[in-house]
From TrEMBL:
Record organism: Arabidopsis thaliana
Protein name: Subtilase family protein
GO molecular function terms attached to this record: serine-type endopeptidase activity
Keyword Hydrolase annotated: yes
Gene that encodes the chain: MNC17.3
The keyword Glycoprotein is assigned to this record: yes
UniProt domain Subtilisin-like protease fibronectin type-III: residue ranges: 614-715
Gene Ontology annotations of biological process type: proteolysis
Record domain Inhibitor I9: where: 35-113
Pfam families with a match to the protein in the record: fn3_6, Inhibitor_I9, Peptidase_S8
Family per record: Belongs to the peptidase S8 family.
Domain Peptidase S8/S53: residue ranges: 137-561
Active site: residue positions: D145 (charge relay system), H200 (charge relay system), S508 (charge relay system)
SUPFAM superfamilies according to UniProt: Subtilisin-like
InterPro entries in the record: Peptidase_S8/S53_dom, Peptidase_S8/S53_dom_sf, Peptidase_S8_Ser-AS, Peptidase_S8_subtilisin-rel, Peptidases_S8_3, S8pro/Inhibitor_I9, S8pro/Inhibitor_I9_sf, SBT
Length: 726
């Protein structure tokens, strides 16, 4: 069949990403129609071009039917071009054979990646923190998640003026959904409305930009003021998850949010599988956002601590890991002999100082033959009459069993580093404390402590298995037991109890922390590009150290370190990356011109190529083959002066993890004469061998006596899984 250009005279092209939707299928003759995304790159600039008409014409051509009613699901027509349609396999093949078609791949369901934290990071309430109120009020954060609870006090518009003039969005939240001057926009991409039914979207929105709400707590624990990083900013919510998070909805949200005029996008959503950039809707949408000056902040994922488990890998994304802060919720177990054990649990209940007898699961078995499964507190193995009114002790975490069997409380063995919400007094004890007392008292509370933040076990780890020479994650932020706003449709327990504020853990919580910091930085530097904001956050981060042996506790866990909001507003130097640089980077990955178009939506020639390790990234990473080798690697970088006009930066190299790297910086001194001046340098790293258990790493620090601009350098070896292309 001859290939034909749909509208080559418009200087556009047709790129089709066919995302299989296994749920939406209808019978058509001997073939099933399935839902596909047809992505067509940039919108043509011609004034008389109407996207929907063109989309309908394409459908009629490939369907070869007089009526195509019900075929078109939605059109992308605001920030990029494309549509979603129901096609048979033969129709999909005909579309794929049209000129410009370069990729066909299945639709995917993505997952949601599920205060005191701001004080911990130095972003104090009220006059304790420098702010730029007028610019903060004009800053709009787009939240891609499961919706929002608009009536929450965290989103009240008391004291707010009208939305910023740049806002071009709408309030389409559905029936009985009202926006205001704080929550200025809402959209949803599935039947129903933009209301949050799980609490996840409400929680993430309030972390990033919620109002300061005093005297909040979760059933009395964690009492204090809950607030976002930029409480004077505005929120626009895009409900892309309704039971599941689909690619077509995410791309629709990017299409709308970019055109609506948001400044920062926070998306606590991801996949458990790795897909090439040209098949990743978040990477594609975020590239379009970046090209319009919008930084997209993405959760690293909750599939740690496995190495190479991170799936947010594009360099134009700010990828966020999760770490501890200086508060945790505990549940103390006071034994009959007065000994106190500290366990993990988030619940606002205690036993009022009264001791209750313990009953071990195996002692409450329905029969002798069921003793083993009763030890694990399997519901059908327990005799409820033996459990009622006692503290049930289990080998594993099954608090709902204690709830349904009418126990007054539960104790279980728990080796995790984070606590879960429970609807009755519960304590998860470490193995060493899991003993055999006769009676106990349980009491819940929150405790503060002074210690360096640690990466949480569930936080997904690097290295980057698409681009080995780009370090991921980029940064870490608080993701442990964060108190924030909740939906009144979401019960934290096993019943119909609802709360206005709840506690959650995950990279879903660390992501909006970093997005809030990005928005805070932007309020002081409204003209900074996404890469400048990202660089400022990364190079001013708190330094972290490996807490354990193995790859999973090194830079592959925390990237550049822990975010520091105040320092990020004044980084001194930044590493800037333009859209043209990203084109050269993609071409340097040996992507052909059509594949680069697939990601960016723009025609490129690939006349310029740069290797991934020479992308002007704020961190430096190189993967080598073999361990007992001598090597020399170089990194080329350029910094832009955003500090003071006349400044001299001297380089310093600090080795980490006992590595034996030789690092030379040339030139070793940078003398800046003016603002926005750019200067380049080369980092040469050499050694005679690599550690097989840990990456060899160092920190390069440029200092003028006021600013310390730090970049991690990581050189490693290892055989990691490659991304799936299916």
């Amino acid at each position: 069949m001859a290939k034909r250009g749909a509208f080559s005279s418009f200087h556009s092209f047709l790129i089709v990403l066919l995302f299989l939707n296994s749920v939406l299928a209808v019978t058509h003759g001997h073939q099933d129609k399935q839902v596909y995304i047809v992505y067509m790159g940039s919108l043509p600039s011609r004034a008389d071009y109407t996207p929907m008409s063109h989309h309908m014409n394409i459908l009629q051509e490939v369907a070869r039917e007089s009526s195509i009613e019900g075929r078109l699901v939605r059109s992308y027509k605001r920030s990029f071009n494309g549509f979603v349609a129901r096609l048979t396999e033969s129709e999909r093949e005909r579309v794929a054979d049209m000129e410009g078609v370069v990729s066909v791949f299945p639709n995917k369901k993505l997952k949601l990646q599920t205060s005191a934290s701001w004080d911990f990071m130095g972003l104090k309430e009220g006059k304790g923190t420098k702010r730029n109120p007028s610019v903060e009020s004009d800053t709009i954060i787009g939240v891609f998640d499961g919706g929002i609870w608009p009536e929450s006090e965290s989103f009240s518009d008391k004291g707010f003026g009208p939305p910023p003039k740049k806002w071009k969005g709408i309030c389409a939240g559905g029936k009985n959904f009202t926006c205001n001057n704080k929550l200025i926009g809402a959209r949803h991409y599935s039947p129903g409305d933009a209301r949050d039914s799980t609490g996840h979207g409400t929680h993430t929105a309030s972390i990033a930009a919620g109002n300061a709400v005093a005297n909040t707590s979760f059933f009395g624990i964690g009492n204090g003021t809950v607030r976002g990083a930029v409480p004077a900013s505005r929120i626009a919510v895009y409900r892309v998850c309704a039971g599941e998070c689909r690619d077509d909805a995410i791309l629709s949200a990017f299409d709308d949010a970019i055109s609506d005029g948001v400044d920062i996008i926070t998306i606590s959503i991801g996949d458990i599988n790795v897909y090439p950039f040209e098949k990743d809707p978040i990477a594609i949408g975020a590239f379009h956002a970046m090209s319009k000056g919008i930084l997209t902040v993405n959760a690293a994922g909750n599939t740690g601590p496995d190495t190479a488990s991170i799936t947010s890998l594009a360099p134009w994304l700010l990828t966020v890991a999760a770490s501890t802060a200086n508060r945790e919720f505990v549940s103390k177990v006071v034994l009959g002999d007065g000994k106190t054990l500290v366990g993990k649990s988030v619940n606002g209940f205690d036993l009022k100082g009264k001791k209750f007898p313990l009953v071990y699961g195996k002692s409450a078995a329905l029969s002798l033959s069921q003793a083993k499964c009763a030890e694990d507190c399997t519901p059908e193995c327990l005799d409820a009459s033996l459990v009622k009114g006692k503290i049930l002790v289990c080998n594993r975490f099954l608090p709902y069993v204690a709830y349904t069997k009418r126990a007054v409380a539960a104790i279980f063995e728990d080796g995790s580093d984070w606590a879960q919400i429970n609807g009755l007094p519960v304590s998860g004890l470490q193995k060493d404390d899991f003993e055999s007392p006769e009676a106990a008292v349980l009491k819940s509370e929150s405790i503060f402590y002074q210690t360096a933040p640690k990466i949480l076990s569930f936080s997904s780890r690097g290295p980057n298995i698409i681009v080995a020479d780009i370090l991921k994650p980029d940064i870490t932020a608080p993701g442990l037991e964060i108190l924030a706003a909740n939906s009144l449709r979401a019960s934290p327990f096993y019943d119909t109890a609802y709360v206005k504020y709840s506690v959650e853990s995950g990279t879903s919580m660390s992501c909006p922390h970093a997005a809030g910091v990005a928005a805070y930085v932007k309020t002081f530097h409204p003209q900074w590009s996404p890469s400048m904001i990202k660089s400022a956050i990364m190079t001013t981060a708190w330094s972290m150290n490996a807490s354990q042996s193995g790859y999973a506790s090194t830079e592959f866990a925390y990237g550049a370190g822990h975010v520091d909001p105040i320092a990020a507003t004044n980084p001194g130097l930044v590493y800037e990356i333009t859209k043209t640089d990203y084109f050269a980077f993609l071409c340097g990955m040996n992507y052909n011109k059509t594949t680069v178009k697939l990601i960016s939506g723009e025609a490129v020639t690939c006349s310029e190529k740069i290797s991934p390790r020479n992308l002007n990234y704020p961190s430096m990473s190189a993967k080598l083959s073999g361990s007992n080798i001598s090597f020399i690697v170089t990194f080329n970088r350029t910094v832009t002066n955003v500090g003071t006009p006349n400044s001299t930066y001297k380089s310093k190299v600090v080795l980490n993890h006992g590595s034996k790297l030789n690092v030379k910086v040339s030139p070793s001194v940078l003398s800046m004469k003016s603002m926005n001046e750019k200067q380049s340098f080369t980092v040469t790293v050499s050694a005679s061998e690599l550690h097989s258990e840990l990456p060899s790493s160092a920190n390069l620090i440029w200092s003028d006596g006021t600013h310390n601009v730090r970049s991690p350098i990581v050189v490693y070896t290892g055989d990691f899984s490659q991304p799936s292309s299916s």
